[in-house]
Design goal:
9-stranded antiparallel beta sheet; alpha+beta; 337 residues; T-fold; single chain
Length: 337
Amino acid sequence: MNSNTSTTRDTDRLAIIEKKFRAMGTDVIVAIVSADACAAHDDADDAERAVVDFEKRFSRFLPASELCSLNKSGGKVCRPSADMIVMLAAAQRWHEDTGGVFDPSVCEALEELGYDKSIDFEHGSVREETDQVFDADAHRRSFQTCPRFADMRIVIEEGTVAVPRGMKLDLGGIGKGYIVDAMAQLLRKKYRDFWISAGGDMFLSGYNSENKPWEIMVQNPLDLNNDIGRITMGDKKEMAVATSGVMKRKGVKGGFAWHHIIDPRTGLPASNTIAAVTVLAPTVTAADVCAKVVLILGEKEGIDFIDRRADCACLTVDMEGKISYSRTMKEYFVPVS
């Protein structure tokens, strides 16, 4: 997704200060509308440092990260950082709210498929050369005997966590939304008008330099050179958006084609007709989580899940290019003509 912006408005001497950098396996953009370019540049630099620090602390791919240390704790009671506790507590709430469909304890399933290191998917899917055929049924049976997220002990009042032996956490389904929300919270203290993008996760606030609400172009997941339409903010002053799909982060292992959205009920990649989903929600964390849940549940169950949430809306694009909408999504989405 891309945010449509104008560059300047001479009458008010406003400009969009834009900072782009690479982190968390994706392009991150911070754009601020301000008459004080120097201050805005400094604040965008601060946002970059916050994201880079977040990745160092919570990436499952960095052996020295706090998350990796927690995953190696072998059932011991640990006292992680406040940020870790907040994320795990939020993950626990979403796990319960979705009936276990959102589950950060699928890390070992991803690793078994070959997603055990940071991979550049920009040049297509990855293929692990092996003579051994991947046995999906054996993988499923093994996964279903492993401890699950519900088995983890989180005592918020004491700030303690115990990850069961044999379980690893992957915060990819909630962490990106969490840090974008954190950046937005910092920026809104000084600015009305800005937007943040981290891959498919975005937070929009206020207006562009022409005093018009931001708009987001939504890519066609089956043809990234074209868009299927645009999202408008309507009467909202702020909007959180997340897009997730199965067309980019994917690979082949032992003849088995996989993507990175794991169904925790099977330990295998979600299997339905959805290619991508875009969710609107009050926070990027909520949008990020809900997008993953819709991808796992499939079109009908996923849209029903969103329709039960008065503060969310979504659209899905299936493998044939058909677009489906939740009850309120058409208030914000304008398809290409």
